[in-house]
User: Fold this.
Amino acid sequence: MALSIALLLATTSALPAPRLSVSSCLTVKGDIILARDLSRALPVFSSLPPDTRIGFAPIPGVRRFFYASELRRIAARYHIVFSTSGAVCFERPMEMLQPDRVIAAMRQALGQPGAHIEILELSRYPVPHGEVRFDRSALPAAPSLGNAALPLLWRGFVRYGDDHRFAIWARANIRVQSARLVAIQDLPPGQAIEARQVRIEEYEAPPSNQPPPPSLDQVVGKMPRRLIAASSPINLLQLDQPEDIERGDRVYVEVQSGRARLSLEGRALAAGRKGDMIPVRNGVNGKIFSACVQDKGRVLLVATLPSQAQDQNQ
Assistant:
């Protein structure tokens, strides 16, 4: 019983006054109720500076009541002669979500003003006045080919007040213009892809939060990990970067020893990319040494001078 009374006393200012109707509530857009807001209902408070803070605004969908006792305390704090038995009510302005605003926000998030969007269902509850926003990262994963015609459930928010977010959602049929690279012929594994072997195909598809398909320059020169059949779309996960040097390649070896520079030819005993250390056989005396891959057909050997070797051993 004691707990119930305490809770009642703690929430008295948020309880609705039975004799007040919905139309008697004043709307407030910011997070703070100011003197200018209160003076709309009680002109006696217009003597205060308009930006004087009176109290916190309610959250969307909730009303904040200032009853007579609280109003008298506020008046006394600012030395205002005031007596009343009434109450003042504040609430956030609310509205139903409209399809045209949702479509505009979705097109902005997609970066495609001409995207085809058909709203099938929206949040069925009032939302606060504010900016409707959808983020592409909140889109579901790309649907499989068999489910490509299913509507998407996209969750967004209304930005209101001092950068608060009110969750919303929409179920819609969405199609955007996309482009992908498609194999013109079978692309065997381990062979670099040439520009003549692929083509750009434009199509309409549902959007997703997945990375965009690769461009031509991201594919040409790469090697499939496994067979890519003709007419199949290509993605970067199917491809490997080719080695700069293959096992058995003849390589140009640059030798650095202090300020001395010399060059020789060798043969790579392993494959490697730029920055890798690979074994190389000297083409003159047959000795094997490790060198760093610099570029296609080029490696670098940094030799240690005898004096440097002695210093390192001491």
Notes: The radius of gyration is 36 Å.
